Amino acid sequence: MYAIVTNNEITKFINHPKSMVIGDVQYPAKIFQLWSTSKLNAIGIYEVVFDDSNKKDEKWYINTNQSYDFDGNKVTASYGTATPKAHEDTTWSQQDSDDGDLPDDKSVGDVKTRGLKYNLIQTLKQQVAGELANTDWYITRNTEKSTAIPSAISTHRDAVRTKQAEMETAITNASDTPALETLYTYTTTDSVQSRPLGELPILES
Fold this sequence. Notes:
Structural class: alpha+beta
């Protein structure tokens, strides 16, 4: 990606090399491959340098839009300070209603946006449902045919639910975004990967 700079101001972006007119001169697209950086700079064309130092994982944070700056003979695209996603649900307020922003099917106090912790727990519930679904047929057979459920199956299903409760508690009790990130961060010890949140038990085949 390139930028055209005129009088120290960025005036245009070029996503792909192409022919263009700068001043009264027509330049072919091949200048981007054949010309040196200094020669491109001399006619006001600068390759954009991307600075992602402020960009954070979008699972946990809301990043700003990129801003572009020409300084020190260089065009830089950078992010501002990322904002941690809200942990708790937000609700429709009386102010929303007064401003005419409250949807017709909502009331003051209804959930407006689900919080990060709610979404993480919902993802966990889906994972639990998927693991339990693998052995649901034992429950169905027991209901329809009174065939006993193997003790190993019952033990596994109980273990899944116990671990689910532990994981939900850990998510709920996380004090801030870095604490949530830590729960999900894998580390390796003696060639074994693990994370503080742990994993749901998987039924051995």
